[in-house]
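User: Show me a protein chain along with its predicted structure.
Assistant: Here is one chain, sequence first, then structure tokens.
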Amino acid sequence: MKRDSGYNTSQKEKLIDYLIKNKHRHTSVQEIDAYLRDIGSPVGTATIYRRLDRLVEQGIVRKFVIDGKTGACYQYVEDEKKCHEHFHLKCLNCGKLIHLSCEKLGSINNHIAERHGFVIDSSKTVFYGVCAECSAEGE
């Protein structure tokens, strides 16, 4: 894992640990802030944003901006290249992010590129819905 070459504070390590533990879903600054407060290691939100921005620059964390109304979400990535090779599914109930490698979507991606001259960035393509676990809970 790539780490910041600068000074590693206890809070920064706790932030990274939180992101790693939640790597299968998007997380918000508010969730990170609440977690750090709950474990007795509060950090100002401006500091959280700055640290996240540095982690994004280093390729350790990906930043997702869903729309202009809600805040950005963040996700720890083990191998950034892998996120460019597949699409994503995001559960609207639990927030889980599923990395989806699907031959059918790959062929749609190829079709759009060949027939319409448009190249889709699958690393930024997210389909929203309800995951199997949440669907089963609702039944």
